[in-house]
Design brief:
The complex is a heterodimer. By secondary structure, chain A is α/β, with parallel strands linked by helices. Chain A contains 17 helices and 6 strands. The longest helix of chain A is centred in the N-terminal third of the chain and has 28 residues. In chain A, about 55% of the residues are buried. In chain B, helix 3 runs antiparallel to helix 4. Classes of the chains: A alpha/beta, B mainly alpha.
């Protein structure tokens, strides 16, 4: 190695800057544990990123020519010009697809870098590349590519460019296994010394891209929280692999932190649905993608439909109301109206709390973000384990656009595809009011016996319109 | 660097990741995810590292795209997380709540 010309370019100095960045990343993530410290934590992590960025520019030979600097500036300029307005303008309801998109570009960057590394090392299939760099690069190419395409499909589904329902091809699993085999075998062949650009591109990048598409397409909207956090973990791990290939500790540490936290979160989501991550990836409920039809068991399946003024009276004279928000609230953008309803009811001395299922919505914590946007106080939001014992003492449960997470079949009916999934026990409260667009079954096509219970009544209509109507009815009661 | 050193760093970082994240409440899972999402934008540095030694127009173009992607990931990720977290933080302050609601 050439002796560094200045202290700034000293390899130890750069490593020291990286260490400062790691400390900031870790402190930043730790800050996210509480709502008070979280904004500061996020900013600490951002400062860490800035330090790592500057340190990298100081590394010898990174800035070699003016034209390279110009190219860097172009990339960073465009990235900033796209990233800032996207982050500023996105609606809170559109957050899951925004996160998916940001995740996708990260994965795409990983795959592109791996591709260039390959092209650079084997201009004509000659030069030797040590396995220590080659194996992680191949891994990064595959996982980054899956993450890029998978995230784009997730984005398309969430943005409703693609249908949210599971899309399955015949023999889907066989195709997936084949694609995975193609990618893996190509990687092994390349690592064993066969150098072929075509094999790298087709065998590794394209097979992984197709796999990313095929894996996410069959996944329905309700499983999105798991998929998004899994893809997040994937991008993190692939970034760490790039770090090993490029001998850069900043990438290894930051990538692994994300990979670990993403895996943790993915597992948490899967537990909250009582399903395994592989089962979710395999797609559909119970496998095979044949969503089970509603069991027609000959019972009396009458639903009681109710009106806004009746509901307003029930709510106003209750002591305790629990609101159960779901994806329907997000779609209708009803969170502000819900907050108004809470204010009106609290003025009348009604205690109002929110029961949040861990997988309600389309990403982990989705409902919390929306309610926070509408300024619902943090201490009004209750997690599942905390609120479930309190449902028997609840006068009215108001279910707004949630379905599967309230389905008592998950608790009682062993034959149900969602049997065993922890649910919010709304059916144990005195009265249940369900705000629903129509009698369509939920995403999974699973019937919800909650709707037919004696203490349940349904208020049909768009969630936002219904809640707005409730607000004015409650006000009219004086 | 030695491969074992790399793996040691990786394993330790993974444990730190698990430890730190297990303390985050459900309520903050979305900001957590988008915050960590921003952190993996660090791959931008990989693009910077490779750029000067890559020759040929295609390589340069691919890397500029990678750098663009990485920058979107970082800038967008941190900003959007910041926006979300401000909502979680500011609501005890009635004046601020009004401002945010009128946005």
């Amino acid at each position: 190695m050439i002796v560094a010309t200045s202290v700034l370019q000293d390899h130890h100095f750069i490593e020291a800057l990286y260490i400062v960045a790691f400390v900031l990343f870790i402190l930043g993530l730790r800050g996210l544990a509480g709502p008070r410290t979280a904004p500061f934590g996020n900013r600490l992590a951002a400062v860490g990123m800035l330090i790592a960025f500057v340190a990298t520019l100081l590394i010898e030979h990174v800035i070699k020519s003016g034209s390279d600097v110009a190219l860097m500036a172009v990339g960073i300029g465009i990235g900033t010009a796209v990233g800032i307005p996207a982050a500023r303008g996105v609606k809170m309801t559109a957050m899951p697809q925004m996160v998916a998109l940001f995740n996708g570009v990260g994965g795409g960057a990983v795959a592109l870098i791996a591709w260039v590394e390959y092209r650079r090392r084997f201009p004509e299939g000659g030069e030797l590349w040590n396995l220590k760099a080659e194996i992680p690069s191949l891994f990064a190419a595959i996982v980054g590519s899956i993450s890029f395409w998978g995230s784009n499909i997730a984005f398309g589904k969430l943005q409703e460019i693609l249908p949210g329902r599971p899309i399955q091809l015949p023999g889907q699993r066989v195709i997936n296994v084949l694609l995975m085999t193609v990618a893996a075998v190509s990687a092994v062949v390349l690592a064993s010394g066969v150098h072929s650009q075509a094999l790298f591109i087709l065998g590794v990048l394209v097979a992984a891209a197709l796999l990313g598409n095929m894996v996410v397409l069959p996944i329905g909207g309700a499983d999105m929280p798991v998929v998004i956090s899994l893809l997040n973990a994937f991008t993190g791990l692939s970034a760490a692999a790039t770090g090993i290939a490029l001998d850069n500790t900043a990438l290894i540490v930051a990538g692994t932190l994300v990979g670990a936290s993403g895996s943790f979160l993915t597992n948490l989501m899967a537990i909250a649905m009582n399903r395994s991550v592989p089962a979710i990836i395999a797609g559909g409920f119970g496998g095979g993608g044949t969503a089970p039809a509603a069991a027609a068991d000959g019972e009396d399946r009458q639903v009681r439909s109710t009106s806004a003024d009746d509901v307003a009276i029930q709510l106003s004279y209750a002591d305790r109301v629990v609101v159960v928000p779901g994806y329907g609230m997000a779609v209708a953008q009803a969170q502000h109206a819900v907050r108004e309803l809470m204010d009106e009811l609290e003025k009348r001395g009604v205690s109002v709390e929110f029961a949040i299922h861990p997988v309600a919505g389309r990403m982990p914590g989705h409902m919390n973000v929306l309610l926070a946007e509408a300024n619902v106080p943090y201490d009004h939001l209750k997690e599942m384990d905390e609120i479930n014992p309190e449902f028997p003492q609840t006068d009215v449960s108001l279910v707004i656009g949630a379905n599967d997470v309230t389905n008592p079949d998950a608790r009682e009916n062993e034959g149900s595809p969602i049997y065993g999934m922890p649910i919010l026990d709304v059916d144990r409260s005195e009265q249940v009011i369900v705000l629903k667009r129509s009698m369509n079954t939920g995403f999974a096509g699973i019937d919800n016996p909650l709707f037919y219970k004696e203490n349940t009544s349904l208020l049909f209509g768009d969630a936002k319109d219904s809640v707005t109507e409730l607000v004015s009815e409650v006000k009219n009661l004086g | 660097m030695d491969i074992l050193t790399d793996i040691a760093i990786l394993v330790l970082a993974a444990f730190v990741g698990f430890e730190v994240i297990s303390k985050v409440p459900n309520t903050l899972h979305t900001p957590l995810m988008s915050g960590t999402n921003a952190i993996h934008g660090i791959v931008l540095l990989g693009g910077l590292l490779v750029l000067s030694s890559a020759v040929g127009a295609l390589n340069k173009v691919l890397l500029v795209i990678a750098i663009t992607f990485g920058t979107i990931n970082i800038v967008g990720g941190f900003l959007v997380t910041d926006r979300m977290l401000e909502m979680f933080k500011g609501r005890r302050d009635p004046k601020r709540s009004e401002e945010e609601r009128s946005e």
